[in-house]
Design goal:
The protein has 161 residues and is α+β, with helices and mostly antiparallel strands. It has one domain: Butyryl-CoA Dehydrogenase, subunit A, domain 3, CATH 1.20.140. It is 63% helix and 11% strand.
């Protein structure tokens, strides 16, 4: 049981770190063109220097929603990690990790909403991008989506042990 808890803890910390990186770094979409490698994220568009992300007025609300849900997913993931540590030492057997699992599943839902909106509204629709592909931040966000779901379910299953 101790090895399982330690493994879940390590995966949870890795998920928090990957969420930070995927939200902060500006490599959600990448394009190699005559201008060089251009990457765009949730905040900036970078070539050799970074500038404000050009977004049309009809896509601005979608981008703000993606930004908000990614930030919420980080907050919920950190709260779930703190709850895990607190509940590990304070609650009796049989009542542990119920809240941690619920908060982690809320984090999972926030990631799902953010990445789905980004996929629907922004994939391949960037200015100056002729042959775009997804960057590592987009892939990390989907990996965090999978990890947060698995961790949330494991917390709910572990509450009975």
């Amino acid at each position: 049981m101790l090895v399982l808890l330690a493994g879940i803890f390590v995966v949870h910390i890795a998920t928090v770190i990957m969420l930070f990186v995927s939200t902060i770094a500006n490599v959600w979409m990448v394009n190699s063109s005559s201008f060089g490698t251009i990457s765009s994220g949730l905040w900036l568009m970078c070539n050799k220097t970074c500038s404000q992300l050009p977004v049309s007025s009809r896509d601005e609300a979608s981008l703000k929603a993606v930004q908000a849900f990614m930030i919420l997913s980080i907050i919920f993931s950190v709260v779930a990690l703190i709850l895990f540590i607190i509940q590990l030492f304070t609650l009796e057997k049989g009542k542990r990790f119920y809240m941690t699992g619920a908060v982690m599943l809320i984090c999972w839902m926030c990631i799902l909403i953010a990445v789905s909106i980004y996929t629907a509204r922004f994939t391949g629709k960037r200015l100056y991008f002729t042959n775009p592909h997804h960057g590592y931040c987009f892939i990390l966000a989907w990996i965090c989506f999978c990890f947060s779901f698995i961790i949330g379910i494991l917390y709910l299953v572990l509450r009975k042990k």
